[in-house]
Design a protein that fits this description.
alpha/beta, six-stranded antiparallel sheet, six-stranded mixed sheet, 15 strands, 19% strand
Length: 550
């Protein structure tokens, strides 16, 4: 239940806080005062599409905060799954700035729009002048019927969901085993080709890196030979080679070996000399084994191309290709031994299909039985709403079973005795659709927590207005009801009265909303009766009489 609403910088409202009653909340105010802004605010905080045009002119941030109490166990579980603590009260807030950025919080925790919509999907049901158009959409009729039936239909639908999940899993396994014989044989041939292609490649781990290193070495062999030859020339092949100069220096110091510090230098030169000789021998060996070999280079290049092609098909490296190879062998073995498994899966599939047909058939019988009750209840409600002689029927057509059952459902309607029953879209007027919607809400009042009526009584008067008022009052006994109205008899049924007013302040137009009591209520309802700026005594007395009748 919505207990309070705080609005900041939304359209004409600068700042206001509204408290709601658990019963019938009536929103009053002159046309254009901004009553529909309250509906926009509730829609926004519940996850409606963010509309920057709602941001108050000259402001950078708008905010709506709503407090809901008597939170259901279902909602508490959703919040728990999101890591949000919740007892019996939930505070939702949503902001929108001039850049279009929005921040949403549930009990202080930041959440995304999808989570907000998931949390609040059953919080409020909006019924405006144009929402009755949803009754025209045939796609909604089956859901409305199932909602009317309630738990019994839900059990069958849950069973169908479980059964179709099982069917989907079996079909997935059959597909994994190749499906029918032709498809299975095709898949086996593909797997055999893939296995043979990888097997014939005779890949080894680390091979690609080794080949690339060899390829680079052979490609650079001419430069390697040239540089090594030059290095050897400097090391020992020239008259003043490095090793020769070190040898001469060592010989000069040998006659001074009796001096300790000189002897140490001689020993170090001796080590350098033999190290240079060893380096030279190593380089000579490398030079002897370095030769540009175009044949080897081409062979390595082809091998690398083969590996590249296999990587493109089977994995980003040799390790993944070999993993694919092992997996392909396992899948081929499964296919070769799949005959018995496929027979078992096909048998299980047929059994499950029979169960689906049986469940869908039982659901259909239930729907047709309960549809008679819905027809009678709707016709009775419409009769109360001054639509005497109205006929309302639920039409059934059979279809292939789905998760929704085997029924295609369509509501058909006739507003007058003797007239042919036709689709709602072809025969019901706007006023008739509004009253039909009200009839549905009155019948299924236990299905929602809060219902908002936005001038659903528009265009009606007299006894019909009185009947609509009674229906709305009746709904409010079971559901929190919020109603925007210009109809005196409807307004008089309220438990809580909220007045929306518009005024100018410092050159700005501002709408405010506040709870009114006592004589103010009488005055506002009288204003609806009289329609004049100066309210007559007769209108005031009539308003008092209406308030006494509720």
């Amino acid at each position: 239940m919505l207990s309070s609403l705080f609005i900041s910088n939304l359209a004409l409202i600068k700042n206001c806080e509204i408290n709601f009653n658990k019963g019938f909340n009536v929103i009053l105010g002159q046309s254009g005062a901004g009553k529909s802004i309250l509906i926009d605010a509730i829609s926004f905080v519940l996850g409606a599409k963010a509309d920057k045009t709602l941001l108050r002119t000259g402001e950078n941030l708008m905010k709506v905060e709503a407090v809901f109490d008597a939170i259901s166990d279902k909602t508490k579980l959703k919040l728990e799954d999101m890591g949000i603590e919740c007892d019996d009260e939930l505070i939702l807030s949503r902001t929108l700035n001039s850049d279009g950025k929005s921040v949403i919080r549930a009990n202080g925790s930041v959440i995304v729009l999808k989570s907000l919509r998931d949390i609040t999907e059953d919080f409020v049901d909006f019924c405006g002048q144009h929402d009755s158009v949803g009754l025209i959409n045939v796609n909604n009729h089956l859901a409305l019927l199932d909602s009317f039936i309630g738990h019994e239909a839900e059990e069958y639908l849950n069973a169908l969901n479980i059964q179709f999940d099982g069917l989907q899993e079996i079909d997935k396994k059959i597909k994994a085993l190749g499906g029918d014989d032709a498809e299975r044989n095709r898949l086996k041939e593909i797997l055999k080709f893939q296995i043979d292609e990888i097997k014939n490649a005779n890949l080894t781990l680390g091979e690609e890196e080794e080949l690339k290193e060899k390829f680079n070495y052979i490609s650079a062999s001419e430069k390697i030979s040239e540089n090594i030859s030059s290095a050897l020339h400097y090391l020992e092949q020239d008259n003043i080679s490095a090793s020769g100069l070190v040898f001469d220096a060592k010989a000069l110091l040998s006659s001074l070996s009796e001096f300790e510090n000189i002897s140490d230098c001689q020993d170090r030169l001796n080590s350098v000399y033999y190290e240079l000789k060893d380096i030279a021998e190593t380089l000579e060996s490398i030079l002897d084994n370095t030769d540009y070999d175009p044949v080897s280079l081409e062979r390595i290049d082809k091998r690398l191309d083969l590996i590249k092609d296999l990587k493109r098909k089977y994995g980003k490296n040799i390790e993944e290709i070999l993993d694919f190879f092992e997996d392909a062998k396992s899948r081929l073995e499964e296919l070769n031994n799949s005959e018995e498994l496929l027979i078992d899966l096909s048998r299980r599939r047929e059994v499950l299909k029979e169960k689906i047909d049986e469940t869908a058939s039982k659901l259909s019988v239930l729907r047709k039985e309960k549809a008679l009750g819905l027809e009678n209840r709707i016709e009775s409600e419409l009769n109360d709403l001054q639509m005497k002689g109205t006929s309302f029927k639920v039409n059934f057509e059979k279809c292939e079973p789905t998760r929704k059952g085997q029924d295609l459902v369509k509501f058909i309607f006739s507003a007058n005795v003797g007239e042919e029953l036709k689709d709602l879209s072809k025969t019901a007027s706007g006023g008739e659709l509004s009253r039909l919607l009200l009839a549905f809400k009155n019948i299924m009042r236990d299905k929602e927590s809060t219902v908002v009526f936005d001038e659903i009584d528009s265009g009606i008067s007299g006894q019909t207005a009185g009947k609509v008022a009674e229906k709305l009052r009746n709904i409010s006994k079971y559901l929190q009801t919020i109603c925007i109205t210009h109809t005196p008899v409807v307004a008089s049924k309220g438990d809580e009265f909220i007045l929306v007013e518009k005024h100018t302040e410092n050159g700005e137009t501002i709408s405010t909303a506040r709870t009114i009591n006592g004589e103010e209520i009488v005055k506002e309802i009288a204003g609806l009766i009289d329609g004049n700026e100066n309210i007559s005594t007769t209108a005031l007395n009539h308003a008092k009489e209406l308030l006494l009748k509720k």
